[in-house]
Known about the structure:
The protein has 11 helices and 14 strands. By secondary structure, the protein is an alpha/beta fold. Strand 2 (28-33) and strand 3 form a beta hairpin. Helix 2 (43-52) packs across helix 7 (235-248), helix 3 packs parallel to helix 4 and helix 5 (177-186) crosses helix 6 (204-213).
Amino acid sequence: MKTYELVAPCHFGLEAVLKREIYELGYEITKVEDGRVTFEGDAEAVCRANIFLRTAERVLVKVGQFHAQTFEELFQGIKQISWEDYIPEDGKFWVAKASSIKSKLFSPSDIQSIVKKAMVERMKERYHVTWFEESGAQYPLRIFLMKDEVTAAIDTSGDSLHKRGYRTLAGKAPISETLAAALILLTPWKKDRILVDPFCGSGTFPIEAAMIAANIAPGMNRSFTAEGWTNLIDRQLWYEVVEEAQELSNTDISVDIQGYDIDKEILKAARENAKRAGVEHLIHFQQRPVSELNHPKKYGFLITNPPYGERLQEKEALAGLYGEIGEALNRLDSWSAYLITSYEDTQRYIGRKADKNRKIYNGMLKTYFYQFLGPKPPKRNRTREAEE
Length: 388
């Protein structure tokens, strides 16, 4: 089976989490850059990466790389790529996205236009036609320029992989499913420990945690663009990988995952989202303000995306809100807390310096993942919990 160079983009600052996921799937990583991990894999790897990876934004097949400082060099470089090895004569192909960083060619629309023209010229010669109907399967392209180095890739995913299919309604400032999963995987939380999100909104953190606990593959219930690539990937492979995912999942487990919010309506949406994800029986949602956050269990985990205060009137209320978070952490003195926020006075009003602090870009917004680490549970308790 042919081996491809596969590129998986991810959130800036979370490459190590994605790298670990790819290794656990059994693939060889060839390169780690800001916001992307490159690895080797065959057609089955395309299916497995799309269905199993929790923290990748999409999976791309890299088809070429070259240096270009002029549009003529871009045209010739694209024309040299063996597009006929990937795209059939009736394939629909277009440049879905072009991005340029620190490069002489910087206009996305011009890059898109030149790349399409060069591809058409190449394929005219190879297929001996003057016009392409483009009525077949879709082959969307992504072109990246970094310091005049051009990378051309075909997108196998289609919709971004954060679209698991369970979230139809979200709150004001939802966290993406891929980012939520990555942040959970950054913590030492395991399914035998309690997890609470006191600002759960539409339920993304609790749902992703429940899916991790039940080993539910995030892409099991959605479709992908490459399913139509019968010239490259046998359709049977997709069925086999979904079957593998179904065999590995186990929803008959006992966990303590809780989501709180003050908004009654958004909690309804959270319950519906959890139901669509197949984990509604694993999560307890409750209307409760953070000022009432307390729990008799020890050594729990608080993982949350509290309000950032993007609007002025909301910003004025943040000092009091983050003060309430600090008071809750004092009550939960054996717990560990993990907060992603862009609010710069987080540590000041919580009243404690974070043990660890990680800069993460949530889209274009610079945020920080504050980690307040509690004590480890006694070894005897951990062994007993594991046995249970």
